[in-house]
Amino acid sequence: MKFGKSLSSQIVETLPEWRDKFLSYKDLKKRLKLIGLGADGEERQAKRARVSDPAGDGGDEAAAAMTPEEADFMRLLEAELDKFNSFFVEKEEEYIIRQKELQDRVARAAGMESREELLRVHKEIVDFHGEMVLLENYSALNYTGFTC
128 lies in which domain range? Predict the structure, then answer.
């Protein structure tokens, strides 16, 4: 199965509130196809240029050498990367806080020797683990999309 179809099926099966957070692989492929080859059939030199240059040694010139299609693709690629990264960082922070809260609840429940509370916390820990596995899968799928 091709990656695009595999990604689409994974998106359908994930949590509904996460669906719009995945890489827009199809849109990126469409933009990439618009770039094409130069008039003489040779690969354009600007394909090797970078949009940003953190070292400050000529990156602006490279960005200026891009065609509008290449610049459009790079803007979309960076926006997708920002979308993916922001969501992941947000979830990571949320999970760190939640993990600490669960640890505190386990300690309190163990002190009370309440079997019912321990069972409730156990269920929440199992659910929490499942959500972390989903985030790991989300990260792996998006990483694969960026490297394809």
Answer: 3-147
8: number of Cβ within 10 Å:
15
Distance CA 4, CA 40 (A): 31
Q: Is 41 left (phi over 0), alpha (psi -120 to 50) or beta?
A: left
Identify the top-confidence range among 27-36, 42-51, 61-70, 119-128: 119-128
Q: Check whether 54 has a pLDDT greater than 60.
A: no
**How many domains does the chain contain in total?**
1
Are residues 70 and 4 in contact, defined by beta-carbon separation less than 8 angstroms?
A: no
In the chain, the amino acid numbered 141 is: L
Q: Which of 81, 79, 94, 80 is nearest to 135 (CA)?
A: 94
How far apart CA 126 and CA 86 sit, in angstroms, is: 25
User: Could you read off the pLDDT of 105-125 as tens digits, one per residue?
Assistant: 999 888 887 788 889 999 999
